[in-house]
Write a structure and sequence with these properties.
Layout: H1 34-39, E1 54-60, E2 66-72, H2 74-78, E3 82-86, E4 96-97, E5 104-105, E6 111-112, E7 118-124, H3 127-136, E8 138-143, E9 165-173, E10 182-190, E11 202-207, E12 213-217, H4 222-233, E13 240-244, H5 257-270, E14 274-277, H6 280-286, E15 293-301, E16 307-317, H7 325-334, E17 344-352, H8 367-385, H9 389-394, H10 416-425, E18 455-471, E19 478-485, E20 488-493, H11 502-514, E21 518-521, H12 538-565, E22 573-576, E23 579-582, E24 588-590, H13 591-595, E25 599-606, E26 623-638, E27 643-654, H14 661-680, E28 709-716, H15 732-750, E29 756-757
């Protein structure tokens, strides 16, 4: 799995020697810090240190729902080595924070709304002392009955001053009286998945002489985090600085703001640097999870299998706070019918608060949940009509020019039929041999209890779609500066490298545009102009676009004197392989010669075309762009034990343009593998709102041994004309699609409905063999 991250140093990271590397867009340029990461010398937040360092610990609620009667910090404050204890009383500024919707307190004061909610934080001269002092804070609770069923939230007493309903979207498209000759119904449940980052949260806060604070964090949206922190600390934003350290894996927003904020408060209170490293348990309790979802569907089709109408109800469990649930619901409702032509659609979507752990942005939010449901419905239709599942899908797929149920016309490339045909026609893998040497191919592996005679093979399909960038009127903008001096280029952009490969892409853009071989990408901090969050392919599009525009401005500065000297326009000059040549061959010089003695720089912004919020009927041009994927899954199922082995996943994806082949393949493979975990193993269990087994033993992530053969059978490079370079994001849509494809294959192998993810063994057992 690709896991690139931004540098944690305070100087620009030098690129490897230019003569050893391919150059420009389309080349598999390796990451500049790949060696440091593989050797274990790359500094992450957990590795940072400062003179006079104190250690922090956070006291978290053991209850899912309780009234706080009293908080006594006396014993903790009196412990030797303890330098500060902070609670809600020590928050000088705005007490609420949260991504999307600021509705979460820094520390609980009157009511605890979820298991693990912060109550107090301690700074001490040793990490063990800090943890013991946190445990010594005495909190008297009046335990309340938690509301953990999202359906109960509609009638329950308000859990929050803003109420239990976060958002309701009624989507009405077409004729409500339309019916089809064939009708299938289903109810589906998607479990609570955790992003489970490779490294748990860690950070360092350092007080400044001006009364401000610097935070060294693995933030994926540093300017938003800076503004939130400043508001909570009662400071102006210019007195809070965030320096982005290495990001050890990010498939979501990555950093829990409830983790960041106590850190800075302690540094401001003590006047000393304070470091906090979360345990894996604290990580599970603190950050946002994928929304558990209940979905009810009814599909209408004619006798030829063409969709007539889709009706659905979608209920997202947001947990205790809203976070980005409004955005997730918009995606779920908008994509509830999938990449299919549906003339009539009536979708009701709700996001509600409960006393479960908070949900938020996780890769493919909203789209992943509905994909599992609508693809199950397509399998039911195919079975009822006696059609091949792939053929049924082909009769209904979207294409460019079709209209989504939200009323928005698909203007970007949408080669859905081409993708599906590619995976359908790809040769199937061979059946395993029935021999002792091949026992490891059985579900459960060589030590499993399965018998070859109980194993059935299934083939299933999934078609998925996601939106790129923000939606519903989000102002997507990024700023970048490109400087060139003595033949060396430096890129300054606050786009955080979260593993998507932005730093590599930025180097390639500058190499391609300016013909400069040595390109450095500066570390990210909030002294730079904002670039926004690192999600939904934003930085490839918006930040990459800003880098390209700045590089082109520098290119014009470089070529103008030459063009003027020879009496021609800069458009008649080109830069190729480090050489500047004119169209007629009269001018020929090297970039290095033209750059000699010059210092050139330019700053540029990229802002995609605006979108609009969904209206009262769920209609509107809400999305900038869309990406699509088709996956064919082949699974072997032991129908006696219910164990499932994913044999192969064949992937076809529209990528717009391949900018870095190796990096793109790694991102697709990582996304597909993440989907395997969602389909089969990943489920954060929360009985009565309490997180059970918050560790990597109780939460089963797929390992290398669980990863199937992943065949990238086709990449459609039909460029999106409104996107810089024509490229599309590639990470999220395989995550969205692969769980649905795996569930489809298990249905094909067992004949069972498989209406829940992750797939439980009992759902794959066949009793009437």
């Amino acid at each position: 799995m690709s896991n690139e991250a931004g540098t944690a140093t305070t100087a620009a990271e030098p690129a490897p020697a230019a003569e050893e590397l391919p150059h420009g867009l389309g080349a598999s340029l390796p990451h500049a810090d790949a060696r440091a990461k593989t050797e274990g010398t790359f500094p992450y937040a957990a590795d940072l240190w400062a003179e006079g360092l104190l250690w922090a610990a956070v006291l978290r609620s053991p209850h899912a729902h309780a009234r706080i009667v009293s908080i006594d910090t006396t014993h903790a404050r009196e412990m030797p080595g303890v330098r500060a204890v902070v609670t809600h009383e020590d928050v000088p500024g705005t007490p609420r924070h949260g991504r999307g919707t600021p509705d979460r307190p820094v520390f609980a004061s009157e009511v605890v709304r979820h298991h693990g909610e912060p109550i107090a934080a301690v700074a001490a001269d040793h990490p063990d002392t800090a943890r013991m002092a946190a445990a010594a804070v005495i909190v008297e609770y009046e335990v309340l009955d938690p509301v953990t069923d999202p359906e109960r939230a509609f009638e329950a007493e308000p859990l929050h001053p803003d109420g239990n309903l976060i958002r309701h979207i009624p989507l009405h498209h077409g004729d409500p009286g339309a019916v089809g000759e064939i009708v299938v119904e289903g109810q589906y449940r998607i479990g609570r998945a955790d992003p489970a980052p490779i490294g748990a949260e860690a950070g360092l806060a350092v007080p400044r002489p001006d009364g401000g604070v610097e935070l060294y964090l693995a933030s994926t949206d540093p300017h938003t985090d800076r503004n939130t922190a400043a508001a909570c600390y009662g400071l102006s934003p210019d007195r809070v600085k965030i320096v982005v350290t290495g990001v050890p894996g990010a498939t979501a927003d990555r950093e829990d703001q409830g983790f960041q904020l106590p850190l800075g408060l302690l540094a401001l209170k003590t006047g000393c640097p304070v470091k906090l490293t979360a345990t894996r348990e604290e990580s599970f309790l603190g950050h946002a999870h994928r929304h558990p979802t209940l979905l009810r569907y009814r599909h209408h089709a004619d006798t030829e299998g063409r969709l007539v109408k889709v009706e659905a109800q979608i209920l997202l469990d947001a947990g205790a706070y809203a976070d980005t649930s409004s955005d997730a619901l918009a995606a779920a409702v908008s994509f509830a019918c999938g990449p299919y032509v549906v003339p009539n659609a009536f979708i009701e979507g709700w996001a509600v608060r409960t006393n479960n752990p908070p949900s938020g942005h996780v890769r493919g939010e909203g789209a992943m949940q509905v994909c599992a449901a609508y693809e199950a419905q397509m399998d039911k239709l195919a079975k009822k009509l006696g059609l091949d599942p792939a053929e049924l899908r082909l009769r209904n797929v979207l294409a460019t020019g079709d209209v989504l149920p939200i009323g928005q016309t698909v203007t970007c490339p949408a080669p859905v039929a081409e993708l599906l045909q590619a995976v359908r026609d790809f040769p199937l893998p061979a059946l395993p041999k029935d021999s002792p040497e091949e026992e490891w191919l059985l579900p459960g592996g060589p030590e499993g209890a399965g018998e070859p005679g109980a194993v059935r093979r299934g083939v299933g399909y999934g078609l998925g779609m996601v939106h790129m960038l923000g939606a519903e009127g989000a102002d997507e903008v990024s700023t970048a500066t490109v400087k060139v001096h003595d033949g060396i280029a430096t890129v300054l952009c606050a786009a955080v490298e979260t593993g998507q490969g932005f730093t590599t892409l930025a180097r390639q853009i500058v190499q391609e545009t300016l013909g400069v071989e040595e390109v450095h990408v500066a570390p990210v901090d909030t002294d730079q102009p904002p670039a926004g969050a690192g999600c939904r392919g934003r930085h490839t599009w918006v930040s990459g676009g800003a880098v390209e525009r700045a590089a082109k401005m520098v290119r014009t500065q470089l070529l103008q004197p030459l063009a003027h000297k020879f009496g021609m326009s800069t458009e008649l000059l080109q830069i190729t392989d480090g050489k500047i040549t004119s169209y007629d061959g009269v001018l020929s010089t090297t970039v290095a010669e033209a750059m000699e003695g010059k210092e050139l720089w330019a700053t540029a912004q990229c802002r995609p075309h605006p979108t609009e919020p969904l209206d009262a009927s769920g209609q509107g041009d809400a999305f900038v762009g869309l990406a699509f994927c088709a996956i064919r899954a082949v699974v072997d199922v032991d129908v006696e034990l219910g164990s499932v082995r994913v044999v192969e996943l064949a992937v076809a994806q529209d990528v717009g343009r391949v900018l870095n082949p190796a990096q793109l393949a790694a991102r697709i493979e990582a996304g597909v593998t993440q989907g395997v975990g969602i389909a089969l193993t990943e489920n954060l269990r929360t009985p009565r709102g309490l997180v059970r087994h918050p560790d990597l033993t109780g939460y089963a992530l797929p390992t290398a041994l669980d990863a199937p053969d992943i065949r990238i059978v086709k990449l459609v490079e039909e460029r999106d004309v409104v996107a810089p370079f024509g490229a599309k994001s590639v990470s999220a849509v395989p995550v969205v699609t692969s769980p649905a494809a795996i569930a489809s294959a298990v249905r094909a192998a067992t004949g069972r409905p498989v209406n829940r993810l992750p797939i439980r063994p009992q759902a794959a057992v066949v009793t009437d063999r």
